[in-house]
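Supplementary Text 2. Reproducibility record for the structural model of the 201-residue chain.

All settings were left at their defaults, and a single model was retained for analysis rather than an ensemble. We include the record here because the model underlies the residue-level annotations in Supplementary Table 4.
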Amino acid sequence: MQLALLLLAAYLLGSVPFAVVVSRLFGMADPRTYGSGNPGATNVLRSGNKLAAILTLLGDALKGWLAVYLAASLAPGLGPAAVPAAGLAAFLGHLYPLFLGFKGGKGVATAAGVLLGASGWVGLAVLTTWLAVAFGTRYSSLAALGASLAAPGIAFLLDLSPLWILSITVMSLLLLWRHKDNIKRLMSGQESRIGSKKKAG
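Retained model, structure tokens:
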């Protein structure tokens, strides 16, 4: 029962839609109504408001990190699977949020927060991968794909537990799945680059 409550709390934390919350606080349009329609930091950036995009990014990452931190701090006796499972639950909350009718973002920032909670070195290594691809190509989606592919291998090389590697692998596969439309647009040359302005949906 305690584990179920922990996972539910992590899922609800992950469900907080910072893209929508921040946009409302700034008096901006709902990010689901323009650009890619994705409630995430990259799409908020298309509004032209960089501060809103940064706050969305930080909020989405924070909820992933916080789920891991709280699970490790408050539930040390629930077994070795509890903390990786809480991280995965928060990630699933972002992808399928209760508060947005189970239609959420793609989970890149939340996954980054989970990784930083699991291991600072793993999180930094995966973030470095994302930054290298993003600055080199200016494609956020391609950077996410590269980081997703690299994450399980980095976790293995930096000696995370098998349960953490399993959790990270599941997140990576879901990230790849959530980017399937981006993959098609990348292949056709129609994917928008970082910093492109919003387009009404």
